[in-house]
Write a structure and sequence with these properties.
Blueprint: H1 12-22, H2 28-42, E1 44-45, H3 59-65, E2 67-68, H4 70-83, E3 88-96, H5 102-108, E4 112-122, E5 125-129, H6 135-140, E6 169-176, H7 181-191
Parallel strand pairs: 1-2
Antiparallel strand pairs: 3-4, 3-6, 4-5
Helix pairs in contact: 1-2, 1-3, 1-4, 2-4, 3-4
Length: 217
C-alpha cells in the first residue's frame, strides 16, 4: 500500500523503527508480531498532553515523540506493517473502559472510550491487533498484557490479571485506510469533549504511570 499523509511508512523515522524491529525476521507473520511488540512496549502509553494535530498523528512524528495512546499507537502499527508489505487498516470502536485512573475516567466523561486498534492481513486473513497497553503499565494496573501471535486476534483485553471480565466492545465506527482526520477528530470531541484542552492537544499533565494503583519500585 502506498504511503499516506498519516501512514508515512516511507519516512526515515518509520523505516528506522521498522528495521530495528524486524531485522532477521523472514515471514510476514514474524515481522507483524515483532512490530506489534515494538509498538506495544517501545512507545509509551500516555494520554495527558498527547498531540492530536495532523502533524502529531503522523507515524513518523509518533516514532520521534515515543509516546501516545491508542490513537497514536494504532496509527504507527498500521504504518509499520505496511513498510514490510503487510496490508493494514485503522479500526475505530467504542469500548467499556478497562485501564484508567479515576482522573482519566473523569477526563473522558465516564467508563467508555473511543478506542483505536489495527487490522492486518496475514496469510490471507484479516486479524485485529491491539498493540496499545505496554507491559509496565499493565503490571502497575494489575492487568496481563495483551499478546499477539499473528494467527489469532489480539482484541479482548482483560480487566485484570486474574482472568476476570474482559474488554467490552460497544460500537464500531468503521475501518480506514488512512486517518479520516476531520471526521475522527469530530467523533473524539463529541464523545469526550473535556479531553481537549486545546484544539490539538489532550488536556492534563503528568502520567498514568504515576496514578497507577501499584507504584514502581
Amino acid at each position: 500500500m502506498e504511503p499516506t499523509e498519516f501512514l508515512d511508512h516511507d519516512s526515515g523515522p518509520v523505516r528506522d523503527f521498522v528495521h530495528c524491529a524486524v531485522e532477521g525476521a523472514e515471514s510476514s507473520r514474524e515481522k507483524a508480531v515483532r512490530l506489534y511488540y515494538a509498538v506495544r512496549d517501545g512507545v509509551d502509553y500516555e494520554v495527558y498532553g498527547s498531540d492530536m494535530s495532523r502533524h502529531g498523528l503522523r507515524a513518523s512524528t509518533i516514532v520521534e515523540n515515543g509516546r501516545g495512546f491508542c490513537v497514536h499507537k494504532s496509527v504507527l502499527y498500521a504504518a509499520a506493517v505496511r513498510a514490510v508489505g503487510i496490508p493494514s487498516r485503522i479500526v475505530v470502536t467504542k469500548v467499556r473502559n478497562h485501564l484508567a485512573s479515576d482522573r482519566l475516567r473523569s477526563l473522558v466523561g465516564g467508563d467508555t472510550f473511543v478506542h483505536w486498534l489495527t487490522s492486518v492481513r496475514i496469510d490471507g486473513r484479516w486479524l485485529r491487533a491491539t498493540p496499545v497497553f505496554n507491559r509496565l503499565l499493565c503490571r502497575l494496573y494489575g492487568m496481563s498484557p495483551l499478546e499477539f501471535d499473528g494467527t489469532s486476534e489480539s482484541l479482548y483485553h482483560p480487566f485484570d490479571s486474574r482472568g476476570g471480565e474482559r474488554m467490552e466492545f460497544l460500537a464500531s465506527y468503521g475501518e480506514y485506510d488512512d486517518v479520516d482526520y476531520e471526521g475522527l477528530m469530530a467523533l473524539m470531541r463529541r464523545e469526550h469533549p473535556a479531553m481537549f484542552g486545546s484544539e490539538v492537544r489532550i488536556a492534563g499533565e503528568g502520567s498514568l504511570l504515576d496514578e497507577a494503583p501499584v507504584q514502581r519500585a
